[in-house]
Design goal:
The protein is mostly beta strands. The chain has one domain (5-99). It contains no helices and 10 strands. The protein has strands at 5-7, 16-21, 25-30, 36-41, 44-56, 62-64, 66-68, 72-77, 80-93, 98-100. 22% of the residues are buried. The mean pLDDT is 93.
Amino acid sequence: MNDSGIYVSRQPQGTKISVKTKNSIYELQVLDSDGSVRICGGIFEIPEIVHFNGCTFGGTMLKIDWIGKGMYMEFVTGDRRYTTSMVREATLYGRDWAYTMEWGS
């Protein structure tokens, strides 16, 4: 984590990440350092375990393992790839702490 984004797999197992996109809110829970997350929200109406690939600006370039403002999150489950609408805000939750990314408007 830094002031401009979040490396998902670097977060401790169990860390929760709430991500608001243009169209939805996603709740992620880090399961391990290989990119596996439990996700619910948006296109995932029931909790599902998926692989978090990273984020893109909408083209072919993918910033692996990264959540950043103005980017689109990408998830894979089986042979299906899912891309969210644009990320607007993200908050990390630990056992006794929370941190909202200070991206401004």
